[in-house]
Design brief:
Organism: Lutibacter profundi
Strand content: 15-25%
Shape: elongated
Pfam families: NOV_C (PF13020)
Protein name: Protein NO VEIN C-terminal domain-containing protein
Radius of gyration: 34 Å
Number of helices: 22
InterPro entries: Auxin_embryo_med, HATPase_C_sf, NOV_C
Structural class: alpha+beta
CATH class of the largest domain: Alpha Beta
Oligomer: single chain
Largest sheet: 14 strands, mixed
């Protein structure tokens, strides 16, 4: 069918049903208003549906063109373009759109649109339509196609150089412009909007003073594909995951230096191939065959949408199961999930975490999270008997794993779990002391005779003769000194005395919280064997004032010659912030404290105190002045070298005298 024949057919329809034709004009106007801020993304989607690899917007003297190098129009395409809501695109097929109304988003931009595609040349122009219908004023723009006249041919010649330079096959020429295409939309087009498009890999915008060139580079490898979005010096990298034999339902994680990071809030949306305004539920992108409202801004959770979202959950669940089974290749995986609670409320946030909770119940039922009150070695020892711990390797690779597991209601190792298993495991002296302290704290107001008898049978007290129960000892003199020292530092004296009395153990010494004092302290002398008079740093450390103290300390340490790796494990609540591996194989543990000066008191938590005690010479406190003049100093083995005062109101350890024990970095690394 020729353009002339199609024109005559539509004119006859308009004359036969003038009221319907007028209604079409109103519908067109409604669509244009609904899509007003999405005209650009709709035009990009149409190009992708045409299997274009290249898309462009270019201004010229009398208007601008929108063009692509996709398949030229067929007669069916031309007819579909003319009919509002009529399209040969199918839901779930090879194309993204399925309503066929996206192009109508441009009707408020210009009074004339000329189209060049393959063998077809035609225009949409209100003035010509009004004239053909004997001055009927209320007419749609995109309905009646018109044959090119001399003016149209002149416009074609004016843009022919641009068309040839970029090898475009389909060109829309907008002239007689009513409203400029949104400069804000062109300028703020998010590169990540292109992430899930099937075909496009180049976008060129040369619109007045806006010049942008965006390239999409894909590398598909089985079920994981890496995509780079490149614009000038900016490169965004994403890891896309999908289920086997399903490349429609996708989850994308943002990557930086090979590590997964949280996407920006504006990037973290659900895509129906192009982005909606719906927050995905975490700082990730989710794509699928979603039903949307006419403006494609919000998602309608019909049966197909629910199925797509469930598939996205399956993708995430599979990765979590792999990690719980020991996969260390997804560093940073949990970071997009753990801070999501601080974002604005979203129906998909609630849906995502509820779905993850339900899907992972069988996997997490036996898992116990490490509690603050127990050291890691004994947490693992307790969990060897019928429950599952999270290994230190996993925590080192995924410091946020405990925080995430709490979000999906994973249980924390509690006193009951410990009591049930303590007689069948062997723990450290510190572990027994920590468990006994926890028992005192938990039962101090609720110690009935039944509970007392049960506790008296626990192998809980380390002595020279082994680990004994309360029924097997008579006096606190029999207890290991380290056990007593821990109680002195962590348990109220009255509580400790009361419990020993209930257990029938004579307290022949003062037990309870006291100030830990030191006599004369001499700062340890260190030799600098590793540095050996070479430069301290392999590269200058990148310190940013806006970064957290922990992050700046990490950047400082990573830049050292001796550093093999430095991991931020703050979220794991291990009693230290940074875990540093040296090239000689030594591992050190660093708790970072922000101070305004090196004479300001600082405090450490009970958890940090226990870790410092546990790791001894491998534990350091880094005191950081995190302002314009970044400074960092270190205190090695703080339990040995510093005086702390227990302040019970916050259960924290305060130190206000440490200046003589501060060390430079080249003094502490042996």
């Amino acid at each position: 069918m020729s353009i002339q024949n199609l024109r005559e057919e539509f004119l006859l329809e308009a004359k036969a049903a003038p009221k319907l034709f007028k209604d079409l004009a109103k519908v067109e106007q409604y669509i244009a208003e609904s899509y007003k801020t999405r005209a650009l993304i709709e035009l990009i989607q149409n190009a992708d549906d045409a299997e274009a690899t290249k898309f462009g917007i270019h201004s010229f003297k009398n208007g601008f063109i929108v063009a692509n190098n996709g398949k030229p129009f067929t007669k069916n395409d031309v007819e579909a373009l003319c009919r509002s809501g009529s399209s040969n695109k199918q839901r779930g097929g090879q194309t993204i759109g399925y309503r066929g109304i996206g192009f109508k988003s441009v009707v408020n931009i210009a009074n004339t649109v000329n189209i060049l595609s393959g063998e077809f040349k035609f225009s949409f122009e209100r003035s010509k339509t009004i004239k053909a219908l004997n001055n009927v004023l209320d007419v749609p723009l995109i309905r009646i196609p018109h044959i090119f006249d001399q003016k149209d041919t002149e416009l074609e010649n004016e843009v022919s150089e641009i068309i040839g330079e970029y090898n475009y096959n389909t060109v829309f020429i907008f002239s007689n412009v009513i409203e400029e295409i949104s400069r804000n939309e062109l300028d703020s087009l998010d590169r990540s909007s292109l992430l899930f498009l099937k075909n496009l890999n180049e976008i060129h915008i040369n619109y007045k003073n806006i010049h942008r060139n965006i390239f999409v580079k894909k590398n598909d490898d089985n079920n994981v594909g890496n995509v780079k979005l490149i614009e000038g010096e900016f490169v965004d990298e994403w890891k896309i995951q999908h289920l086997e034999n399903n490349k429609t339902d996708l989850v994308a994680f943002k990557i930086e230096n090979g590590i997964i990071i949280p996407a920006l809030n504006d990037e973290s949306v659900i895509h129906s191939f192009t982005p909606t305004n719906e927050f995905s539920g975490a700082f990730i992108k989710i794509n699928g065959d979603y039903t949307t409202d006419p403006s494609r801004k919000s998602v309608d959770m019909d049966e197909l949408s629910v199925q797509s979202y469930n598939n996205a959950v399956k993708i995430i669940v599979k990765s979590i199961k792999d990690i719980l089974n020991g996969d260390l290749s997804k560093q940073g995986f949990f970071t997009p999930f753990i801070n999501v609670q601080t974002s604005e409320s979203s129906r998909f946030k609630k849906l995502l975490f509820k779905s993850l909770d339900n899907a992972l119940q069988n996997n997490i039922n036996s898992i116990r999270i490490k509690p603050d009150w127990l050291n890691f070695e004994d947490y693992e020892n307790i969990c060897k008997n019928g429950i599952t711990s999270i290994s230190k390797n996993l925590i080192s690779t995924y410091p946020e794993i405990f925080t995430f597991l709490k979000l999906i209601n994973t249980k924390i190792l509690n006193t009951y779990d410990t009591i049930e298993r303590i007689n069948s495991v062997t723990l450290t002296v510190m572990g027994y002391a920590q468990i006994y302290s926890k028992i005192i704290a938990q039962y101090r107001y609720d110690l009935d005779s039944t509970t007392t008898e049960k506790l008296k049978n626990l192998s809980l007290f380390p002595t020279q003769n082994g680990i004994l129960s309360a029924n097997q000892i008579t006096s606190t003199n029999e207890l290991e000194k380290e056990f007593i020292n821990y109680l002195n530092n962590n348990v109220d004296s009255a509580d400790a005395t009361m419990f020993f009395k209930k257990f029938g153990i004579e307290t022949s010494q003062s037990i309870g919280i006291v100030s830990v004092n030191k006599n004369e302290i001499k700062a340890p002398t260190y030799t600098n064997e590793i540095l050996n008079n070479t430069s301290t740093f392999k590269i200058p450390p990148t310190i940013k004032k806006w970064r957290s103290t922990e992050k700046n300390a990490q950047e400082y340490l990573k830049a050292l010659n001796v550093a093999l790796s430095v991991k931020d494990v703050t979220e794991a609540n291990l009693g230290y912030d940074l875990e540093m591996m040296l090239h000689n194989g030594k591992r050190i543990y660093i708790e970072v404290k922000s101070v305004n000066s090196f004479i300001e008191p600082f405090k450490i938590s009970n958890n940090e105190y226990s870790s410092a005690h546990n790791y001894g010479e491998d534990y350091y406190i880094a005191l950081v002045i995190n302002n314009d003049d970044f400074k960092i100093m270190f205190v090695p083995n703080p339990i040995k070298n510093l005086s702390f005062e227990k302040k019970c109101e916050r259960w924290s350890w305060f130190c206000d005298e440490y200046i003589n024990d501060l060390q430079e970095i080249n003094q502490i690394i042996l």
